[in-house]
Amino acid sequence: MSHKDELINKIKGLGPWFHNVEVMDDISTREICPSEGPQPIDHPLQRWRALEPHLPKSMNGLNVLDVGSADGFFSVEFAKRGAHVLATDYSKKMINRVEFLANAMNLSISTKVCSAENMKIEGHVDIIFNLGLLYHSRHPLLLLENLWSIPHKVMYLETTITDGEESYLYFKPPQEGVHHIPKWFPTKSCVCEMLKFVGYKKIEVFEYTTPSRFFLKAEK
After folding, report:
1. Rounded to the nearest 5°, which phi and psi values hold at 96?
2. Which residues face 127 on adjacent strands?
3. Shortest CA distance to 71 belongs to which of 92, 51, 55?
4. What CATH number does the domain located at 43-219 have?
5. Which of 39, 53, 140, 208 has a 20 to 30 A CA-CA distance from 46?
């Protein structure tokens, strides 16, 4: 069996995949074994294109924490730019996929199975990435408070939002046949107020082509 065939079989065995990661030429995880759902086959490429222009051009030597890494698309991209990445997720199956990618692509990614609301990290982190996680949390403010307690300089946050000028969270119960967990949808001002409340001093909001999503950089 060729190396390519071995990779394809491993991807199938670890799937289905939520993230589409190009492991090598002509081998991409979600194209081989996609999970069900409305996301496009290249997910989360659109979100990456919104984030990438705001990142340091070189991430060599930076310690990065990818909170709620899922299958590891973003962790892979950070590591490809030279960062030392710690990918965390509550799902062992997803962390198994991240570990496979790190080994197959020879990237500096370590992993930890844990909840973002109570995770403990030793040492200093340069950048925390909190991407597509806040609205999935049962306790979004607790999540932000816990991430604040981790020594770091900057956090990039991306989340789904709801309409409205006032600061509030909209609770959406699970939809039968669509997803099995409830979601919190904050307004833009709610996200900013929560970040200020936990202690962030500077918040920079970025343009996002999708009106239902919100993307910013918060600094201590």
Report:
1. -60, -35
2. 64, 154
3. 92
4. 3.40.50.150
5. 140
Pairing of strands 63-67, 27-28: unpaired
**Nearest by Cα to 197 from 154, 159, 142, 152:** 142
**Other beta carbons within 10 Å of 100:** 20
Nearest to residue 127, comparing CAs of 89, 88, 78, 91?
Answer: 78
CB 194 within 8 A of CB 140: yes
Report the alpha-carbon distance of residue 213 to residue 71 in Å, rounded: 20
Q: What is the DSSP string of the chain?
A: --HHHHHHHHHHHH--BSS--EEETTEEHHHHSBPSSSS-TTTTHHHHHHHGGGS-S--TT-EEEEET-TTSHHHHHHHHTT-EEEEEES-HHHHHHHHHHHHHHT--EEEEE--TTT----S--SEEEEES-GGG-SSHHHHHHHHHHS--SEEEEEEE--S-SS--EEEEPPPTTT-SS-EEEE-HHHHHHHHHHHT--EEEEE--SSTTEEEEEEE-
Q: How many CB atoms lie within 10 A of CB 71?
A: 31
What would the pLDDT profile of 51-102 be if each residue is shown by its tens digit? Answer: 999 998 899 999 999 999 999 999 999 999 999 999 999 999 999 999 999 9
Q: Are 82 and 62 in contact (CB under 8 A)?
A: yes
Phi, then psi, of 189 in degrees rounded to 5: -65, -30
